[in-house]
Amino acid sequence: MKNPRILSHFQESAELKMISAELLAEPIEQAIELMFTALSNGNKILACGNGGSAADCQHFAAELVGRFERERLPLPALALTTDSSIMTAVANDYSFQEVFSKQVQAFGQAGDILLAITTSGNSQGVLNAVDAALERDMRVIALTGKGGGEMRSRLTDADVHICVPHDRTARIQEVHLLTIHCMCDGIDAALFGGDTDE
């Protein structure tokens, strides 16, 4: 007998993905265009988030620096979640809410992109990183859920907000991962053209 609790997870996830496909295809396409333009101009992508969102940042950076589905030159992407010495020094000497913003100030340049991931849209450390990025004339791509939270008021018209229409963190993260894969595929297609089978 099939476990109904397990089946309900799959069903809810599948239904949300189909709803999100309709709502989020356009902002995902806009995000790909922003990233493509930045990378084409010799800029880089910085990514930040906490917990599962930190793992998503690292996944994204790994796909760009390594590869997604095709052999190509490495692309400059940096997860701001990986240097334990920087993170613990900033958290100890200042506050944890500055672990990402300090790195954006150190590594970010005009024309770079910040990929800011927070399922609630209210992570103060991620919001601080967004503020720092905008001060440096960077563009922001925000992945959120739960209505977007405080992130909505931080972004400019030149930024992209991809807000998953759900309140459950696990479901939001599942769509964030699919979104990241869409962005990686779109970046490869925009930069190098064609399909992976060519």
TrEMBL record:
Protein name: Phosphoheptose isomerase
Entry-linked SUPFAM superfamilies: SIS domain
NCBIfam families linked to this entry: PRK13936.1
Further comment: The reaction produces a racemic mixture of D-glycero-alpha-D-manno-heptose 7-phosphate and D-glycero-beta-D-manno-heptose 7-phosphate.
PANTHER family, A to Z: DNAA INITIATOR-ASSOCIATING PROTEIN DIAA (PTHR30390:SF6), SEDOHEPTULOSE 7-PHOSPHATE ISOMERASE / DNAA INITIATOR-ASSOCIATING FACTOR FOR REPLICATION INITIATION (PTHR30390)
Source organism, top-level taxon: Bacteria
Described purpose of this protein according to its UniProt entry: Catalyzes the isomerization of sedoheptulose 7-phosphate in D-glycero-D-manno-heptose 7-phosphate.
Cofactor needs: Zn(2+)
GO molecular function annotation: isomerase activity
Family note: Belongs to the SIS family. GmhA subfamily.
InterPro entries per the UniProt record, alphabetical: GmhA/DiaA, Phosphoheptose_Isoase, SIS_dom, SIS_dom_sf, SIS_GmhA/DiaA_subfam
Main location: cytoplasm
Keywords for the protein's UniProt record, in alphabetical order: Carbohydrate metabolism, Cytoplasm, Isomerase, Metal-binding, Zinc
Enzyme Commission (EC) number: 5.3.1.28
CC cofactor note: Binds 1 zinc ion per subunit.
Domain SIS: 35-197
Pathway annotation from the record: Carbohydrate biosynthesis; D-glycero-D-manno-heptose 7-phosphate biosynthesis; D-glycero-alpha-D-manno-heptose 7-phosphate and D-glycero-beta-D-manno-heptose 7-phosphate from sedoheptulose 7-phosphate: step 1/1
Gene from which the chain derives: gmhA
Reactions catalysed, as given in the entry: 2 D-sedoheptulose 7-phosphate = D-glycero-alpha-D-manno-heptose 7-phosphate + D-glycero-beta-D-manno-heptose 7-phosphate
Claim: ATP-binding is one of the keywords in the record: no
Quaternary structure note: Homotetramer.
Compartment(s) of residence: Cytoplasm
Record: residues binding Zn(2+): H59, E63, Q173, H181
Annotated binding of substrate, by residue: N50, G51, G52, E63, N92, D93, T118, T119, S120, S123, Q173
